[in-house]
Write a structure and sequence with these properties.
This protein is mainly α. The chain has two domains: 14-67, Arc Repressor Mutant, subunit A; 72-197, Tetracycline Repressor, domain 2, CATH 1.10.357. It contains eleven helices and no strands. The protein has helices spanning 5-8, 14-39, 46-53, 57-63, 67-71, 73-89, 95-110, 114-126, 128-153, 158-181, 187-197.
Amino acid sequence: MANTASDSQPNPPAGLRERKKARVQAQLVATAWELFAEHGFAAVTVDQIVEAAGVSRSSFFRYFDTKDAALFHNTRLALDNMEADFEFRSRSVPPRQALHESLLQAATDYEPRRSEYRTLRRLMREDRVLRASAAAYNQSLLAEMTSTYLRQLGQGDELAARVEVAVVWAAATVALESWVRLDDEDLLPLTVRALAVLPQAG
């Protein structure tokens, strides 16, 4: 019996499939951001995103549960990178030092994205529901980073460790907010200054 087209064509290698998935996901994120920036977050639907991106609705939901997830996707990737960097650094230096160094590395990585963060802040100002969603998302990121910190710390004062991460996170957030507002300040020196305000560990 003759092979069908699907029988005769081998499945693409796993690496190829992953690269294709990454391209589709990146296209959806870029398209969503363009539409959000032009029309506002609330006015844009998933159907509009997939139509503009040239993919199916099912493709969108293969990668994202909601349009919020598409909006915060780059932030999600940034945290994943920071966590991986923190875990690597904490193998050779104390967790507190590793956390500070990872935040400074993240600040360096974020530098080209000031316009993106400005757009995000504008969208949040315009949409009360999005502000609430962003606050909840930020809390989930903080909880995740805290969990990673506690895991790397091992034994110790859990309460003190949770406070430590919360305070460092808040300082980095203040630096980020200042960077979004200002034109003549880079994020790295702002983050360095924000972390320098914090008391040293006893």
